[in-house]
Design goal:
This protein has 323 residues and is α/β, with parallel strands linked by helices. Helix content is 43%, strand content 20%. It is built from 11 helices and 12 strands. A 10-stranded mixed beta sheet has the order 2-1-3-12-11-4-5-10-8-9, sandwiched between helices. Strands 6-7 form a two-stranded antiparallel ribbon. A hairpin with a 4-residue loop joins strand 6 and strand 7. Helix 1 (13-27) crosses helix 9. The longest helix has 17 residues, at 164-180. The radius of gyration is 19 Å and the shape is globular. It starts with a strand and ends with a helix. The chain binds nicotinamide-adenine-dinucleotide, 3-isopropylmalic acid and manganese (II) ion.
């Protein structure tokens, strides 16, 4: 039996994750869900955002379904999501951008780059070390090539004109693509950001370093209706975590207006990861039928609440199950 740890986190995580869980349970009642408390809310209450015992709970799960956590820009606070990604070595952050006329997958290196965690503050400056290792680059390049092989091609997003660390990243990614027989292009990340928005058809799988992938994926959300639409998978050799690309959205939290599609799609990615693409597709199709019926949350120009949208998807999933 698949055991899934469920982390609502903070903010709208408390609203979108329960919707995704209801749908997951409807399509796969055999999956065991157990709740784990992680995040800024827990830190405020207890002084610990995660803790060793909690990390052990996360490790014990076959997968994690994660909402979003608040990370204040406080030098004394380290993002609990980054701690989890590092501790579980979730090196591949897969962010599909799919919608009308758009089918792109951003593959973001998830453990190093500017998120190496090697940083310090001096009286008059603060430094962060951007680490690009051969091992880290080879494994993300291989992951991206495996995704690109049955598709069209690979683009390596980089800034090698300025950053020596990206010269190594590009060298390794192009070598892996050649080895894998995947057609490969190399684009500077700044120009790529605009070109992806203007000509998404020119892109297929895009591999890039940690922070570039973070920024590129939020920008790419523009192509498919915004942050409420984008799911993601964080994959390692032994663990996997599925989460919306968006954050805890404190500006709309607690109002029942958040779009739960990103969380629902993250649950669909979880199903596909566990070898059940039929259930994954059933969830995705149910979302599309609800959108097709004109039911939308506020960010998409509609009036449906988070819960109402979720209930509509649940009905569609049930209808498909009975058909
Ligand atoms: P955000 O993604 O939370 O929100 C950006 C904007 O998009 C906001 O206006 C928000 O209302 C809107 N938005 C996001 N998700 C939405 C949804 N599902 N439906 C409708 N609108 C949605 O980014 P932010 O405001 O920069 O960050 C808020 C907090 O979340 C910060 O503490 C940040 O560190 C954290 N964060 C966490 C994660 C994560 O846990 N994976 C990701 C990004 C940001
Ligand atoms: C994301 C988020 C995280 C990141 C933050 C909250 C640590 O923005 O998952 O895109 O930068 O990776
Ligand atoms: Mn982000």
């Amino acid at each position: 039996m698949v055991k899934v740890a469920v982390v609502e986190g903070d903010g709208i995580g408390h609203e979108v994750v329960p919707v995704a869980c209801d749908i997951l349970t409807a399509v796969r009642p055999d999956i065991e869900l157990f709740e784990v408390e992680v995040g800024y809310g827990r830190w405020e209450r207890t002084g610990s955002a995660c803790g060793e015992e909690t990390m052990a709970d996360l490790r014990s799960a076959d997968a994690i379904l994660f909402g979003a956590v608040t990370t204040p820009p406080d030098p004394g606070y380290r993002s609990v999501l980054l701690q989890i990604r590092h501790a579980l070595d979730l090196y591949a952050n897969v962010r599909p951008i799919q919608g009308e006329g758009v089918d792109v997958i951003i593959v973001r290196e998830n453990t190093e780059g500017l998120y190496s965690g090697i940083e310090w503050t001096e009286p008059d400056r603060a430094c962060t070390v951007r680490v690009v290792s051969r091992r880290g680059s080879e494994r993300i390049a291989r992951y991206a090539c495996t995704l690109a092989k049955p598709r069209r091609h690979l683009t390596v997003g980089n800034k090698a004109n300025v950053l020596k660390s990206d010269c190594l990243f590009v060298e390794i990614c192009t070598a892996e693509a050649l080895r894998a027989g995947v057609p490969c292009r190399v684009n500077y990340i700044d120009a790529l950001c605009l070109d992806l928005l203007m000509h998404p058809d020119r892109y297929d799988v895009v591999v890039t370093t940690n922070m570039f992938g973070d920024i590129l994926s939020d920008a790419a959300a523009y192509l498919v209706g915004g942050l409420g639409m984008l799911p993601s998978a964080n994959i390692g050799e032994r663990h996997a975590l599925f989460e919306p690309v968006h954050g805890s959205a404190p500006d709309i939290a607690g109002k029942n207006v958040a779009n739960p599609i990103a969380a629902i799609r993250s649950a669909a990615m979880l199903l596909c990861h566990f070898g059940d693409p039929v259930s994954g597709a059933a969830v995705e199709e149910a979302v599309l039928r609800v959108l097709g019926a004109g039911i939308r949350t506020r960010d998409l120009g509609g009036a449906a609440g988070t819960r109402e949208f979720g209930a509509a998807v649940l009905r569609e999933v049930g209808r498909a199950g009975r058909a």
